[in-house]
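Action item from last week, closing it out:
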Amino acid sequence: MKNIAIFASGSGSNAENIICYFAQKPDFCVKRIYCNVPDAFVLVRAKKYDIPTTVFDRQAFCDPEKILKQLKEDDTNFIVLAGFLWLIPDFIIATYPNRIVNIHPALLPSHGGKGMYGHRVHEAVIAAKEQESGITIHFVNELYDSGSIVFQAKCPVIPEDTADSLAEKVHRLEYKYFPQVIEGIMEDVLSK
């Protein structure tokens, strides 16, 4: 069994999409949702699918005896960041080399880094008068949005676009590609 942990901080629409995708794959299991926001809607979504959750604060996150211990107890093979806003501690990255991926709602390396998430990203893309935006799926390292890029998908940015309309286009790309790319990466990395 290939066990996935999802880290999320917000609504959890990508997390739910991933849960539903892998529910159809008998060799994969979303083992747990980790969340740093006690009232995040992702926790409601997890409960709907009977996925266990772990809510934590920054102190617990940075303590190898807490989150890392739980990941190991769950026999976690792979970690997915789906709207998770904190940097991953070095000891987790070292334990899961090339087994942690994140999705960013723009075409990195543009419009990434600390503080660049959600509508801030779409507003920056529009302000820069970009012709296109999209998604970037990348491996996680010790810096925000700077790990090796695994996959990108693009959508046009038209003059009439707002942050909301661009977000809608980008979400469609996220829902279409993120679970498939996760599966492909896991098949590749875990077969080595």
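Closing note: The first strand starts at residue 2 and ends at 8.
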